[in-house]
Amino acid sequence: MENTQRNNLLVPLAIIIAGVLIAGALFFSRKDANQNGEVLGNTQERPEENMKPVSSDDHILGSPNADILLVEYSDTDCPFCQSFHTTLKKVIDEYGKESKVAWVYRHFAFHPKAPKEAEATECVAEIGGNEKFWQFLDLLFSKKDFKKQPYEGLDPKVLPDLAASVGVNKTAFIECLNSGKFAEKVAASYQDGLKAGTQGTPYTILVTKTMKIPINNGAIPYDSLKNAIQSILSGEVK
Asked: Mean pLDDT across the chain, nearest whole number?
């Protein structure tokens, strides 16, 4: 019965938002990648079911008990992720206060400097807490000018100053980052993303209590994402 209901929703959902699928194989074309995101490779059918469950170990903006959890796999050196980051902030501004939607950020760091930047966010979180994590992440994305320096990332030497600018102890941050203590966590998040179907960034899975809906064509526009959210909240998709 569940599979039948999901299959029946394929057509209306395709109209609401390209790339949001209830059932069937995920496909991420290179045409989509050039327009909305970055592609890495192929994946198996319905891999989103393999996604690691959201837990207290995650970085969550909003209530962990929200009706919809937007689980995003992202790379701080991805220009499409930078664009989608702004989109998701707008979503949380609209839906977060009433615990309708929460944002779960996960690392899928595959550009050369992205893993160390991901470790930096983890150090900020350990020292300053969840609020500082999100402030630092916002700052990282705001510092990127991908038109001038595509995929090159920031000079690692500036990361301590950026951490200090959001109120994190600079000495503690440097010690944490130099230790490499979060390298394994960042790498594990990448592997979890692969298992969950991440073929490029940004990759987002809309998680409710009864289903997981992957968005697999990158930085979709705000209005398209909002329509999908509204369809779920209204009970049109269940």
From this structure: 84
